[in-house]
From TrEMBL:
This protein's UniProt keywords: Signal
Matches recorded under InterPro entries: AztD-like, Quino_amine_DH_bsu
Top-level taxon of the source organism: Bacteria
Lineage: Bacteria, Pseudomonadati, Pseudomonadota, Alphaproteobacteria, Hyphomicrobiales
Record-given protein name: Zinc metallochaperone AztD
Coiled coil ranges: none
Signal peptide location: 1-27
Key word Signal present: yes
Length: 412
């Protein structure tokens, strides 16, 4: 990866913050500042999602679901999708945290956490991709995906646009302007009754759900992310990048893995928010930093052992955090492409066994790292600088999937 270009992105982001600082300070002179952070935690085996106040550790609500859930926050943080793939069901939780942008400052309104009366049903819902004012929910065995309007959900209503996925498959769909990028299954291969066909590429749909152009090859497509205005998909050949192209269909470009890379490929991707870059896995014990604008877009990062989870810090764009199966937490400097520090934060959690066995998951809240520890019914809170545990939050059962929403803003 070309470090100078990444640094250029960071400097641009820093400049925007500096320009914003003066009016933001003036806003605080005339408005009280409010801050709120909430954790949403799904149990590994019980059908329950808990909402917890991050500062006090107090449980704000406990919501029953049909089955164990995977959690995804909407882009605004106002909605939490609780996806129960094995039970063909999705619950909607309203986080009670709302930000309103007013140019020189933003307001924060805090209300009670609420389980919505709106639910979604379909055969094996899996990937939820939030973007802007909506999210796309993909049903692996339902042969459909749904674009879900967030504003309607906040009024306990459902406003849904359905998409055809050609054939049931473990896939994903992403919006880009008025177009939709969607995984393509192999429609010719014969599969066993309970098996799903492999993914072979990406197709583009217009606002009328009609395909535009052909199919771009992306073998075994898995993993997607957005960064700035770009979308990325993990493929066996490389990482496929989609770029907006005005009112025309997005442009697709395959970034092939370097020839000197070891065997492996990317199946999980994260996208930078204030810098344009992607972070993905490369097999089980490596990561790749990807700068799509660089002539040499890949930088390989070796891990000491297999990763359990990894996440980007939304407030500190140069930091990524990786938990490996030996119980060590690592801080990755994405500018330098090196692990800057490591420390033990949990006991070992082996990657051997079933992929859905209970293992820790990471979130970032109020500048700290929150780590679920399902064996000990805890969330461990770790300082990202010292990597020392600052406190724990007791959570009944086996805390597993976790998302954090919150921040600060003016209150009126």
């Amino acid at each position: 990866m070309g470090v100078p270009l990444i640094r250029k992105h960071l400097l641009a982001a820093a400049a925007s913050v500096i320009l914003f600082a003066a009016p933001h300070a003036q806003a605080h002179e005339s408005h009280d500042t409010n801050e709120a952070w909430r954790l949403f935690i799904a149990d590994h085996t019980k059908p329950v999602v808990r909402a917890i106040d991050f500062s006090t550790g107090k449980e704000l609500g406990s919501f029953e679901t049909k089955g164990p859930a995977s959690l995804t926050a909407s882009a605004s943080g106002q909605i939490i999708y609780a996806t129960q793939s094995d039970d063909d069901f999705v619950n909607i939780i309203q986080s009670g945290i709302k930000f309103s942008d007013h140019g020189d400052h933003r307001d924060l309104d805090v209300s009670d956490v609420k389980l919505s009366g709106v639910t979604f049903e379909g055969k094996r819902p899996f990937h939820v991709v939030p973007h802007g004012d909506h999210a796309i929910l993909f049903y692996d065995r339902g042969g459909k995906a749904e674009i879900i309007n967030e504003a309607a959900l906040l009024e306990d209503k459902a406003d849904v646009r359905e998409l055809d996925t050609l054939k049931p498959h473990h896939g994903v769909a992403v919006t880009m302007g008025r177009h939709i990028l969607m995984s393509v299954p192999d429609t010719e291969v014969e599969t066993k009754p309970d098996a799903l066909p492999p993914r072979v590429g990406v197709r583009i749909l217009d606002e009328n759900n009609q395909q535009v152009g052909g199919i771009e090859k992306c073998t075994d497509l898995h993993g997607e992310a957005m960064s700035a205005r770009l979308a990325a998909f993990g493929c066996k050949e490389g990482v496929l990048i989609a770029k907006p192209n005005g009112s025309d269909a997005p442009q697709l470009q395959m970034l092939a893995y370097p020839k000197d890379f070891p065997a492996g490929y990317t199946g999980t991707l994260l996208g930078g928010k204030t810098m344009q870059f992607f972070l993905g896995n490369y097999g089980e014990d490596k990561l790749v930093l990807i700068d799509p604008e660089d002539a040499n877009p890949y930088r390989l990062v070796e891990l000491p052992t297999r990763r359990v989870d990894f996440i980007l810090d939304p407030a500190n764009p140069k930091n990524a955090y990786i938990l490996t199966e030996d119980g060590n937490l690592h801080v990755l400097d994405v500018l330098k492409g090196v692990i800057s520090r490591s420390a033990k934060v949990t006991e070992p959690y082996s990657k051997d066994g079933h992929w859905r066995d209970p293992r820790p998951r990471l979130a970032v809240a109020d500048g700290e790292i929150a780590i679920t520890d399902p064996r000990h019914s805890l969330v461990r809170v770790v300082d990202p600088e010292s990597l020392k545990e600052t406190r724990t939050i007791a959570v009944e059962g086996m805390p597993f999937s976790i998302v954090a929403v919150g921040g600060s803003g003016a209150s009126h």
